[in-house]
Design goal:
Blueprint (H helix, E strand, L loop, with lengths): L1 H27 L10 H11 L6 E5 L6 E3 L4 E5 H5 L3 H18 L3 H30 L4 H39 L6 H38 L4
Parallel strand pairs: 1-3
Antiparallel strand pairs: 2-3
Length: about 230
């Protein structure tokens, strides 16, 4: 019963965070910035100012799938953000450009996250598959199952914890660059961009909280000697 409540509670947290992102993005994607720059143009100028010449800015058609790929040095923007001149488009584009600047400056948390991607992917597979295998086959002892799940969730939690400073720092850089370079003209525009970026940050906080709760769920019985 407790595990079901944890599942439902963490799902609600994740859904609320996603809802807030979409709400803020939808709202501020309808408000054009007075500067008239597109997201792609803003990202290009931010990268140029930072002395970054080897990052490709590309367009794709997935909504809110914007990201910076450090392995291929590619800044990917959705069509609306690539061509759009809205406050949301500028905020998202500047945020991803912030990740490129982190990469150039060898920002430690970003490199830690890059190094942990593969092991975190493996841990995600474990927490998805292992409970099913354990229920069907029953080949794992309780202690072994709890230990493996605690370690896997611990890896995921650590990855999500490292992600927080990476994302918050990229948003900080985005707000600073947009204001300093004249992409945002007044406090109202800055406030709109901040709301979009802050809402996006909530999704990473929700992911960390979820992984922390599951990590503790599997770890505490091992520490206290209780059995579920």
């Amino acid at each position: 019963m407790t595990l079901l409540l944890i599942f439902l509670g963490t799902m609600v947290i994740a859904l609320l965070a996603q809802w807030q992102v979409r709400r803020m993005y939808t709202r501020y994607s309808k408000i054009p910035a007075m500067s008239g720059y597109t997201g792609a143009e803003a990202a290009h100028e931010i990268l140029r100012r930072a002395g970054i010449r080897d990052v490709e800015i590309v367009e794709h058609n997935e909504m809110l799938g914007d990201h910076y790929d450090p392995r291929h040095k590619r800044l990917v923007l959705s069509t609306d953000n690539y061509h759009g001149t809205s406050l949301a488009a500028l905020g998202v584009a500047a945020h991803e450009a912030g990740h490129a600047i982190q990469h150039k400056q060898a920002y430690a948390p970003l490199h830690w996250r890059m190094a942990a991607v593969h092991v975190t992917g493996f841990a995600n597979q474990i927490v998805t598959i292992l409970p099913l295998i354990g229920v069907i086959t029953g080949f794992l002892s309780t202690v072994t199952g709890l230990t493996v799940m605690a370690v896997a969730w611990g890896v995921i939690m650590a990855f999500n914890l490292i992600t927080l400073p990476v994302e918050f720092d990229a948003s900080r850089r985005a707000k600073m660059q947009l204001a300093e370079m004249g992409f945002l003209r007044d406090g109202t525009e800055m406030s709109g961009v901040a709301k979009v970026l802050n809402a996006a940050a909530l999704t990473y906080v929700a992911a960390f909280v979820t992984s922390l709760v599951y990590f503790l769920w599997y770890l505490l019985p091992l520490l206290t000697g209780q059995r579920r």
